[in-house]
Amino acid sequence: NAGVTQTPKFQVLKTGQSMTLQCAQDMNHEYMSWYRQDPGMGLRLIHYSVGAGITDQGEVPNGYNVSRSTTEDFPLRLLSAAPSQTSVYFCASSYSPGLAKNIQYFGAGTRLSVL
Amino acid sequence: AQSVTQLDSHVSVSEGTPVLLRCNYSSSYSPSLFWYVQHPNKGLQLLLKYTSAATLVKGINGFEAEFKKSETSFHLTKPSAHMSDAAEYFCVVSDQYGGSQGNLIFGKGTKLSVKP
Question: What is the least distance, in Å, from the CA of B102 to any CA of chain A?
């Protein structure tokens, strides 16, 4: 089973460039989310989605856009990359938030450097 | 608003000795609590979770955690450390009934080192 798949695994960008981080899950999960991980900061929520067509902002949404046209995919877009966006990005999914069985499954991460 | 505090950024133990990673939480509602582990350059793996059933929760690889409401704590323990336990550990809280949609709030992590 693939689970949560993130691509690419590594990416180097120049300041001002745009790119899309891909995230796909094959578990028919309603809830998907994006986190960034920075040293000493833990993981911080960027955006999340509770179903196709529905997205909302997390703790650190500035500089990022998302959309959810299908249940399976939840891409994260950087419209104009900045050095402050250098980080490791994780995508996660679960059946539904707010339930006792709310276990989120994480992808392997995308390591992004912005020069 | 919910939050979680991991009291130690780095813990070092010798192989075969007990492990204690400390976590305190703050939550307005009945929380779900989790411990995740991240090995170097890897993704996150769920160790265990608490969701208002038994207060002593057993997880994978011999880890367990005890939910103590009076102390708002959810410390992670293991009786005997193994070299393969060296990793970063995250305590995580999720409100089941709050307006946060059950989003996860991560602690800043505790790096566990295991000496031979």
Answer: 4
